[in-house]
Design goal:
This protein has 326 residues and is an alpha+beta fold. The protein has three domains: 3-80; 95-153, Orthogonal Bundle (Helix Hairpins); 161-309, Histidine kinase-like ATPase, C-terminal domain (Heat Shock Protein 90). It contains eight helices and seven strands; from the N terminus they run H-H-H-E-H-H-E-E-H-E-E-H-H-E-E. The longest helix is centred in the N-terminal third of the chain and has 59 residues, at 62-120. The chain starts with a helix and ends in a 17-residue tail after the last strand.
């Protein structure tokens, strides 16, 4: 083969290789275009029909896979936001319904007592006392709504300091002495004699413990048992408030901390609260970098555990952060 023929052959090989590369690029580009078009159609369908879903992409292109992955992250966030919004709407509707019921009921009673007083008089002032008590119940409910609104909006500042939680536990339990005696409760208290310091707020801690003990007395009355135990665990101080009543089913374990979730759903339909106490208690605990946990075995033991961080500072007085029992 002459040198001229070799050069021509070499040129033809190069031309073929260039052509193959161009064809391969064209095929890859067409395949990528089809994949992008399919992704665009799928994404349009998901957005237009507002349905849950994600993009399914079958390609060897790492770039397209990465793009699809980021798009799916956005879709997942959008779907989560949508679900949160729907839950918020349902919660708001339930809140309005419960507010209407919880305020209307005692006000109806107040009006009834006032009507009886107008028609028959009130010897001894018993009717007025009952009307006054119902009016106070309404004010307490309204105060709770305002407190919860402030907590959720971040408008309630809680000043933290080093506090002896043992003393706060003893003081709070003493407030229930009369009712525990009247109801013939067995009370078991395990609180160390020495001081145990946590980083918290005195008024907030009293309010949390008051609510937890009140719930134990109210909803655990059948078991006639109240247990208060304080223990340490690494960097935490734990306060267990236990009763032996009907307990709470596992499916309601997290719901009991939701706004306006009442214990009539989870414990007893004969005793109903307004569904705000535990919500406020957990919100206060979390603002102090703590939490409230629940563990319940129906008809055996129900324990709400307040978790607080151990303090490392010298104790000092904490400013009042909220009204008591509101």
């Amino acid at each position: 083969m002459s040198s001229g023929h070799a050069i021509v052959f070499l040129i033809l090989c190069i031309a073929v290789l260039i052509g193959a590369m161009i064809c391969q690029r064209a095929v890859l580009r067409a395949r990528m275009n089809r994949t992008l078009s399919q992704m665009a159609e799928d994404l349009k369908e998901i957005l237009d029909k507002e349905r849950d879903g994600s993009l399914m992409v079958f390609t060897e292109s790492r770039e397209l896979m990465a793009l699809a992955g980021q798009i799916n992250r956005l879709l997942e966030k959008q779907q989560k936001s949508k679900a949160d919004f729907l839950r918020s709407q349902i919660s708001s509707k339930k809140m309005l319904s419960n507010i209407s019921h919880d305020i209307k009921t005692p006000m109806t009673v107040v009006l009834g007592y006032l009507e009886i007083i107008r028609l028959q008089g009130d010897e001894g002032g018993e009717m007025l006392k009952k009307a006054e008590q119902k009016a106070q119940d309404v004010m307490e409910l309204i105060n709770r709504f305002f407190t919860l609104a402030k907590l959720e909006a971040g408008d309630m500042e809680i000043e933290l300091s080093s506090l002896d939680i043992c003393g706060i536990c003893r003081e709070t339990v003493l407030e229930f002495y009369e009712i525990l005696t009247e109801k013939d409760f067995q009370v078991e208290i395990r609180i160390p004699e020495h001081a145990v310091y946590v980083n918290g707020n005195g008024e907030a801690l009293q309010r949390i413990l008051y609510n937890l003990i009140s719930n134990a007395v109210k909803y655990g009355a059948e078991g006639k048992y109240l247990g208060i135990a304080l223990r340490g665990e690494k960097e935490l101080v734990l306060v267990d408030v236990t009763d032996k009543g009907m307990g709470i089913d596992k499916k309601f374990a997290e719901n009991v901390f939701e706004r306006l979730f009442t214990m009539e759903d989870s414990r007893s339909r004969q005793v109903q609260g307004n569904g705000l106490g535990l919500t406020i208690a957990r919100s206060l605990a979390r603002q102090m970098k703590g939490d409230i946990l629940l563990e319940s075995v129906p008809y055996e033991r129900t324990t709400f555990t307040l978790q607080m961080r151990k303090a490392i500072r010298t104790p000092r007085f904490a400013a009042n952060c909220c009204e008591r029992n509101s």
